[in-house]
């Protein structure tokens, strides 16, 4: 924008100067020609009394003296054909002046001034003074150079003024852009100082107001999430007490473990909602231990629903770059989808292996498969919240990996959770 404004001002300045300086330059040349012609005419008229009354010798002496003083060729054509002074042939202008008409004409060497002198006893004499081209253009080149230099200086001054004006416009716009990028990077305390024209000041104020409003809304949202998560602790406590009252130790241990996992998830939500501004720490967990633990948990439900489970778990440790709570939630989401969206008795397989520097968790079932767009947050065709796969996707992205959906070779669905290694504090 700054360059375009400068280019626009330069174009306008150049066109204006051309429209002004070209006529002025032509006028300077015309004035110089007229000035030289007037001087030559005055010199010629000074010879009229001598040519009209004196003899040839006197006329020759006067002509030679005038030629020496003026530096121009001076010729006097007498009626008898005698030429005094510069020996030049008779030109058409001289022939016309011999008939009694004085005039100024153009010649090959410049310009000639001819004056008819009447009153001589032997006829009409003619005075001719040649004005050379260099005298006609004397001072014109210097005047044109001065005008060109003046034009260049004016254009440079215009560019300087335009650049300073453009800077007053571009700098506030650059500040607005920088603050908007900071806000996009979650720096919600970024603000722009209003500057520049009134319109830009209004935009800056609107951006600051928007940033403040976003900050307030996020704080309210986090507080609501934290409050809701805190309220869940009461039914969790009741559930743990109910589990402890069960007679079967295995059932009590299983339900208590589930309640503990749910409480850890709730605690993580509270921590994430209230301390989101805290510096992020590099996260890591052992995928082998977490997947083995969650598969053991879901295997009990699989046995109750008549589902055959095929396991292929690489022994650990298999460190990945995602927090243990997030990876646990992702694995539970993938296994929970199998139970939620396939009929009872549908077999499924869980495989955990290391591939090309990544840890890949594959959950495959022989159910009806997944509809298109199932990975989109909030999308579900089965009446659920549609957040399960999105939780897994975000866990994969946190570990530098990705979530993939495929169709099984014999029908059903395959979900691949690719997890990268943990990052060091220097990388983070």
From TrEMBL:
<dbReference type="InterPro" id="IPR003661">
    <property type="entry name" value="HisK_dim/P_dom"/>
</dbReference>
<dbReference type="GO" id="GO:0000155">
    <property type="term" value="F:phosphorelay sensor kinase activity"/>
</dbReference>
<keyword id="KW-0597">Phosphoprotein</keyword>
<keyword id="KW-1133">Transmembrane helix</keyword>
<dbReference type="InterPro" id="IPR036097">
    <property type="entry name" value="HisK_dim/P_sf"/>
</dbReference>
<dbReference type="InterPro" id="IPR003660">
    <property type="entry name" value="HAMP_dom"/>
</dbReference>
<keyword id="KW-0808">Transferase</keyword>
<keyword id="KW-1003">Cell membrane</keyword>
<dbReference type="Pfam" id="PF00512">
    <property type="entry name" value="HisKA"/>
</dbReference>
<dbReference type="GO" id="GO:0005886">
    <property type="term" value="C:plasma membrane"/>
</dbReference>
<dbReference type="InterPro" id="IPR003594">
    <property type="entry name" value="HATPase_dom"/>
</dbReference>
<dbReference type="GO" id="GO:0005524">
    <property type="term" value="F:ATP binding"/>
</dbReference>
<feature type="transmembrane region" description="Helical">
    <location>
        <begin position="143"/>
        <end position="162"/>
    </location>
</feature>
<keyword id="KW-0812">Transmembrane</keyword>
<dbReference type="InterPro" id="IPR050980">
    <property type="entry name" value="2C_sensor_his_kinase"/>
</dbReference>
<dbReference type="InterPro" id="IPR036890">
    <property type="entry name" value="HATPase_C_sf"/>
</dbReference>
<dbReference type="InterPro" id="IPR005467">
    <property type="entry name" value="His_kinase_dom"/>
</dbReference>
<keyword id="KW-0902">Two-component regulatory system</keyword>
<keyword id="KW-0472">Membrane</keyword>
<feature type="domain" description="Histidine kinase">
    <location>
        <begin position="227"/>
        <end position="423"/>
    </location>
</feature>
<keyword id="KW-0067">ATP-binding</keyword>
<protein>
    <recommendedName>
        <fullName>histidine kinase</fullName>
        <ecNumber>2.7.13.3</ecNumber>
    </recommendedName>
</protein>
<keyword id="KW-0547">Nucleotide-binding</keyword>
<dbReference type="Pfam" id="PF02518">
    <property type="entry name" value="HATPase_c"/>
</dbReference>
<dbReference type="Pfam" id="PF00672">
    <property type="entry name" value="HAMP"/>
</dbReference>
<keyword id="KW-0418">Kinase</keyword>
<feature type="domain" description="HAMP">
    <location>
        <begin position="167"/>
        <end position="219"/>
    </location>
</feature>
């Amino acid at each position: 924008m700054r360059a375009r404004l400068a280019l626009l001002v330069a174009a306008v300045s150049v066109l204006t100067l051309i429209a002004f300086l070209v006529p002025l330059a032509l006028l300077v040349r015309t004035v110089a020609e007229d000035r030289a012609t007037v001087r030559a005419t005055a010199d010629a008229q000074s010879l009229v009394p001598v040519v009209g009354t004196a003899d040839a010798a006197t006329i020759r002496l006067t002509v030679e003296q005038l030629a020496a003083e003026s530096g121009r060729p001076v010729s006097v054509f007498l009626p008898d054909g005698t030429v005094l002074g510069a020996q030049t042939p008779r030109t058409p202008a001289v022939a016309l002046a011999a008939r009694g008409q004085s005039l100024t004409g153009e010649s090959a060497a410049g310009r000639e001034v001819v004056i008819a002198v009447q009153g001589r006893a032997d006829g009409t004499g003619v005075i001719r003074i040649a004005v050379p081209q260099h005298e006609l253009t004397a001072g014109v080149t210097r005047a044109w150079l001065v005008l060109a230099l003046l034009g260049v200086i004016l254009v440079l001054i215009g560019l300087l003024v335009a650049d300073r004006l453009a800077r007053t416009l571009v700098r506030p716009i650059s500040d607005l852009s920088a603050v908007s990028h900071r806000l996009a990077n979650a720096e919600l305390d970024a603000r722009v100082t209003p500057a520049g024209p009134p319109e830009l000041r209004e935009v800056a104020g609107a951006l600051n107001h928007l940033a403040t409003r976003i900050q307030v809304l996020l704080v309210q949202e986090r507080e609501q999430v934290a409050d809701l998560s805190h309220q869940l602790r009461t039914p969790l406590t009741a559930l743990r007490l109910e589990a402890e009252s069960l007679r079967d130790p295995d059932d009590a241990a299983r339900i208590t473990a589930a309640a503990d996992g749910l409480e850890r998830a709730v605690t993580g939500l509270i921590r994430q909602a209230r301390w989101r501004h805290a510096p992020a720490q590099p996260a890591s967990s052992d995928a082998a231990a977490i997947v083995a633990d969650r598969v053991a948990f879901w295997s009990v439900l699989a046995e109750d629903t008549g589902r055959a489970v095929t396991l292929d778990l690489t022994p650990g440790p298999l460190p990945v770059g995602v927090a243990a709570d997030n990876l646990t939630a992702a694995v539970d989401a993938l296994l929970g989808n199998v139970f939620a969206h396939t009929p009872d008795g549908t077999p499924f397989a869980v495989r955990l292996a290391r591939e090309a520097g990544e840890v890949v968790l594959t959950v495959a079932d022989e159910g009806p498969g997944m509809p298109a767009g199932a990975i989109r947050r909030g999308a579900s065709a089965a009446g659920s919240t549609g957040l399960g796969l999105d939780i897994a996707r975000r866990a994969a992205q946190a570990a530098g990996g990705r979530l993939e959906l495929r169709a099984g070779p014999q029908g059903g669905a395959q979900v691949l959770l690719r997890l990268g290694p943990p990052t060091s504090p220097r990388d983070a």
